[in-house]
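Kindly inspect what follows.
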Amino acid sequence: MHTRLLVAASLVLTAFLGLTGLGLDRAFRASAETAVHDRLQGYVYVLLAAADLGPNGVLQLPDTLPDARFSTPASGLYAEVSANHGAMRWRSRSALGVTAPFPGDLAPGQWRFERIRTAAGEPLFALGFGVSWEGGGGARNYTFAVAGNLAGFHAQIGRFRRSLWGWLAAAAAVLLAAQGAILHWGLAPLRRVTHDLAAMEDGRRDRLEGRYPRELRGLTENLNSLITGERSQRARYRDALADLAHSLKTPLAVLRGALAEPGRSAQELRGAVKDAAGRMNQIIDYQLQRAAASGRSTLMAPVDVARAAQRIAGSIAKVYRDKGVSWDTRIAEGVCFYGDEGDLMELLGNLVDNAFKWCRGQVAIRAEAVPASAGRRPGLRLIVEDDGPGIAAEQRERVLQRGGRADPGASGQGIGLAVVADIVSAYDGRLELRRAALGGTAVEVTLPAG
């Protein structure tokens, strides 16, 4: 990740500095051309100052001009004055032997700045200016033109580019080094998380502990929750298998004893096998349901409690259609269960089934959210009550145990509330049995915020 970020940032930085360099180079080049224009304009003004009309009314210029380069052949600075649409033409000594298309025939007051090339292929900057000169024979139009080679211009551009790209390269190196250091420092918490996870894999740690930045705290808490849930699930499977093996010993011993006892009739053996098989089936169902409880996890999607309650109660009402049970749900909008949907369905199924089974004619299902602090998921308070005979206070502990029933003569295996208790325990919740407002039993399940 560090390498990918560094490469991506380096590419962005390189592109940015490259575009910056190109922009500065273009701006400096335009500035240099403007400087050349201004310099040539100054030379045009020198020519205008030196020009004068001769005795014959023709414009004349001195052989020697203030800048010595105009008098030095092939100096790179050339001047030409020509009459518009006329034969008069004056050229500086430096222009002897130089054939070039100087600007000409310009209207008075017109400037023209352009690049030209001599017959020998030498590139030049040329600036022409049109003037109207009053003489004895009237006004005549002339074009004053000055041209200079590009040697100085290219030398200046070259020096600037070497300086520019040198400084940009140095800046890029410094910024890349700083960027690498910042990335190394910024990603240090992720490396610490990786190191802590490796320590957990080696068995040197049980959970992610340490001072992590706020941005990673949610990740580490979720990982800890996931790891804790997975360990709890494994422990439940292990304990369920151990309990299953232990619990099956008794009915198996009964079966062996019945088979080993001489003189028992086939009908008695069938009864003993039926009782033992029923007992084993009850034990297996309970232990499987107990092991299947998922437990709390921050990675679970929220489950709509109202929808689940309506579905469960509607299905069970069909089973107990003959009783004519009146049931209703009072669940606030948006109340959710943050856990495995199967756990909620198992919990609601057992509670609602018990309520329909023992009620005289009324069942109420209520649920509300348990407030949570900022950044945490709300908990859940679920209450299922009926108008049945209720459960005596001294029996409430017993009915929460496997096989415990308030009425031993009633049908059922006595594992429904025990399964509910195990699911609630898996979510670190609280289960309470009390007298209901309807007169029967109220079972209240409270699952804390997570």
Q: What stands out?
A: Residues 214-291 form one domain. Residues 2-50 form the longest helix (49 residues). The chain has nine helices and 14 strands.
